[in-house]
Specification:
The protein is built from five helices and five strands. By secondary structure, the protein is α+β, with helices and mostly antiparallel strands. The chain has a domain of 107 residues: Orthogonal Bundle (Multidrug-efflux Transporter Regulator, Chain: A, Domain 2). Strands 1, 2, 3, 4 and 5 form a five-stranded antiparallel sheet that branches. A hairpin with a 2-residue loop joins strand 1 and strand 2. It is globular, with a radius of gyration of 23 Å.
Length: 159
């Protein structure tokens, strides 16, 4: 029995130094921890502004809502497709993160669906009206306090 016979069963498997990936069959439903989730609104961050609590969402939440990676959202911000989110409060400037309000994210999702950049068939973003529509959305929301942030304070507001 030669060495070829001893290692023939490994020929279909990954081994150190090989670029071939292991082909694994799934024997059941995917693990919930591994399966992608699109529940972007599950864990809002709360910040107190003018004595009231408001909910905000991270760039990761926006990315999950659009089925993209946070790096793609940052790229879209740099390219002007999405206005940069406001920065979270922090004593250290480098720890301030981009945050968005629920109406901003819901509006971006609606616009992305309208122009067809959600789902399987995704046209190139520059060939859509996405930038124009999102800018209009943010300008409209800017007329409202905190860009339409949802107040979650339990105190009754007098208007």
């Amino acid at each position: 029995m030669g060495w070829e016979d001893s290692f023939s069963e490994l020929a279909e498997e990954y081994y150190p130094g090989s670029s071939k990936k292991i082909a694994r069959s799934s024997s059941g439903p995917p693990d919930a921890a591994i399966a992608p989730t699109n529940d972007w609104a599950a864990n809002p961050r709360t910040y107190v502004v003018d004595g009231n609590e408001y909910e905000f969402f991270s760039i990761g939440d926006l990315a999950a809502a659009l089925d993209r990676r946070p790096g793609t959202i940052r790229l879209w911000e740099r390219q002007g497709y999405i206005p940069e989110g406001i920065r979270s409060p922090s004593a250290h400037a480098e720890k301030r993160q981009r945050i968005y309000t629920r109406p901003q994210i819901e509006g971006i999702i609606r616009i992305a669906a309208e122009v067809g950049i959600l789902g399987e068939a995704r046209p190139r973003i520059e060939k859509t009206r996405f930038r124009e529509l999102v800018l209009d959305l943010f300008l409209e929301l800017a007329k409202k306090p905190l860009s339409g942030a949802v107040q979650i304070s339990t105190e009754k507001r007098t208007e």
